[in-house]
Amino acid sequence: MKRTLCVVVFLSYLLATGMAFGGIPGTLDKTPAATLIIPFFEVGINAPTHPEDTFSIVYNRATTEEKIHYHVWDKNGNATDLYGEQTLSGNETWAASMRGLIEGSTAAVRTALDDGGNYYRGFVTIDLVTADTTKNPTEAGYPFAVGASTNVLEGFIYYVRLAQGSSNSMPMLPINWVPNTANTKMTDLYQSGDEREEFDATARGCAEIIASNAGACTNDNEIARVDSRVYLDQTYSAATRIIVFTWNPNVVGGPSLYCDTHACESDYDYKQYDPSGNLVTDTTVRLPSVVNVLSVSGTTNGLVSIQKIDDTALNFNVYGFSITNASPSSGASANWDAILPSYIEP
Amino acid sequence: MKRTLYVVVFLSCLLAAGPAFGGIPGTLDKTPAATLIVPFFEVGIDATANPNDTFAIVYNRATTSSQIHYHVWDKNGNATDLYGDVTLSGNETWAASMRGLITASTAAVRTELDDGGTYYRGFVTIDMVTAETTKNPTESGYPFATGSSSNALEGFVYYVRLAEGSSNSMSMIPINWVDHTTADGTLVGMYTTSQADGREEFDAGARACSEILVSGTAGTCAFDAVIGRVDSRVYLDATYNAKTRIILFTWNPLIVAGPSVYCDTRACDSEYDYKQYDPDGNLVTDTTIRLPNVVNVIDVSGTSNGLVSIQNIADAPHHYMVYGFSMTNASPATGASANWDAILPSYIEP
């Protein structure tokens, strides 16, 4: 009788909370998550001349009310004073314009996010939390919501320049809550005990090893490759930028900055291939920031491979994608853009 | 001495082939793969009236030459006679316009791909192979390239209507080669009944199995007879004449057509929950939907933004590979200078 009651209570709880599939640790699989990351936002400071904006869309797939805390960071990984909470009812969607949030913030925040005078740039973390907080998720005492029922957030990003007739989009990075049965090399993104999955080289490699039944997890000191599609056709005045997100929540700056004062490599191989496979650029690149915006040179389409990104610190979480902007002078009626996630090998 | 020689030869092979990270079985992680899938293509039959085209881009990340076989399928999963083989040198990129391929094919192929008179639609598989072939990958004797060095393909898709000033893009679906002698059998054998193709699956069972294994949760992998949810973002703002379509790819390579057709004659459900939520979380549409095809193109009704959740998709044969994304097309009458689109992959729970 008691067992039956327990089962009924458990099932009722599941139905009430709308418990989600847990997702795969160490993998940015598109499953509901306990944390979402916008790895890059870009907002033109002068809207008439630079209409770029970034829209953030968060859906609560639970049937119950949930609270999220968003925190805006500058491109180097400094938490700003632009943050807040939203309470989402079951199946509710929260939509926010980064332009709107930044314009509603303080002058100090705008100065912190100003990246060169024309754009505000940085990234955003969005966590399921148990209470309002003024802290950011790397600080002790941050009220992380944990448990299987916290994997309920689904996030989408639009990169727009609507006044110029263009929009593109991609999912936010979904960071699953991970049970304590998982290998510890795959958890604690922000800090010990947060139970958020990591996506550094070690976590990515570990997930593959375990799922493939290929042995034991080991530490991995580098991301081997971040391969990004580039499209530079001058017929369309096309320009490609690669966004490489390299975040160790324990430090400020990217891996190059970290390695400038530690025994590791600050420069990483940068190899650009044309469509025929010819190596047209063979150089190195620094990744000094969390949000690294790399403008690709040349006029031939193909691929850029950034290789051997150091992770001696064993906590640089890496993601990448390319953004192409095209502005045909004739033929097509207006501008168009394209976003493509990078292929990443640990 | 002999052992040293073996080591040298082995390392030389590794360096020559540029071995790739194997990727995570049961998970569509963006890692180099042995097979790529373009889950949907759309080409306007009359290019002037409907300039839609789909570009396929395949990069060979190996340092050595690799042979790929592409095969074009109609929306129901019938292999067409539009296929070919391409040899890519190390780091070479192959770019193809589906319009170009279809225009150069036969009248029979064009008839097969004609989806209602206005568009050609279907999907494409691209495999690393060891030899040229006239077969498709579900046929016996297909020359699959296997081994960790076969995980060397990276693919991208552009959905364009350039004459109308719009382009969007996403990755192809990367299907890793998986060592079937060590990996759980639930994760391997996408194309065939055996696991010898070494291609990872992404049906409900494989997705759940991957999570069970990597999370270290109690239990063993088991067949999962249902995809729990496919959640897709929709944007229907009438100010911008926005329309959203959901593309739901449901492919069991062992049979023709989608799960609804399969279940019409078997003991499983042919209709699946379709729940549309507005921004406030109100359930504005609560109905069911059929998924009769491999490539299901679903027009979302209404004028409020939000999300559509398609739930409890049957996978009775334990072999329906599922992927989804939404495509929004907008044509502002004022303000913005022209059309713009947006593509967003769906969130999927097994």
Spatial sequence of strands, sheet with the most strands of chain B? 4-3-6-1-9
Classification by helices and strands of chain B: mainly beta
What is the name of the CATH superfamily of the largest domain in chain A?
TM1070-like
Quick one: biggest sheet of chain B? 5 strands, antiparallel
Share of residues in helices of chain B:
10-25%
What is the CATH C-level name of the largest domain in chain A?
Mainly Beta
Secondary structure tally, helices of chain A? 5
CATH architecture of the largest domain in chain B: Sandwich
Structural class from helices and strands of chain A?
Answer: mainly beta
Tally of helical segments of chain B: 5
Structural description of this entry:
By secondary structure, chain A is mostly beta strands. Chain A has two domains: 20-186, Hypothetical Protein Tm1070, Chain: A (Sandwich); 221-345, no CATH class. Chain A is 14% helix and 40% strand. Chain A is built from five helices and 18 strands. Chain A has a five-stranded antiparallel beta sheet with strand order 4-3-6-1-9. Chain A has a five-stranded antiparallel beta sheet with strand order 13-12-15-10-18. The longest helix of chain A has 16 residues, at 2-17. Chain A is globular. Mean pLDDT of chain A is 91; it is low at 1-20. By secondary structure, chain B is mainly beta. Chain B is globular and about 55 Å long. The interface between A and B is large, with 86 and 87 residues.
In short:
By secondary structure, chain A is mainly β. Chain A is 14% helix and 40% strand. Chain A folds into two domains: 20-186, TM1070-like (Hypothetical Protein Tm1070, Chain: A); 221-345, no CATH class.
Topology:
The complex is a heterodimer of chains A (346) and B (350).
Chain A: H1 2-17, E1 35-44, E2 53-60, E3 66-74, E4 79-88, E5 93-97, H2 98-103, H3 107-113, E6 119-129, E7 153-161, E8 166-171, E9 173-175, H4 201-212, E10 222-230, E11 239-247, H5 255-260, E12 267-273, E13 279-286, E14 291-295, E15 302-310, E16 317-326, E17 336-341, E18 343-345
Chain B: H1 2-17, E1 35-44, E2 53-60, E3 66-74, E4 79-88, E5 93-97, H2 98-103, H3 107-113, E6 119-129, E7 153-161, E8 166-171, E9 173-175, H4 204-215, E10 226-234, E11 243-251, H5 259-264, E12 271-277, E13 283-290, E14 295-299, E15 306-314, E16 321-330, E17 340-345, E18 347-349
Antiparallel strand pairs in B: 1-6, 1-9, 2-5, 2-7, 3-4, 3-6, 7-8, 10-15, 10-18, 11-14, 11-16, 12-13, 12-15, 16-17
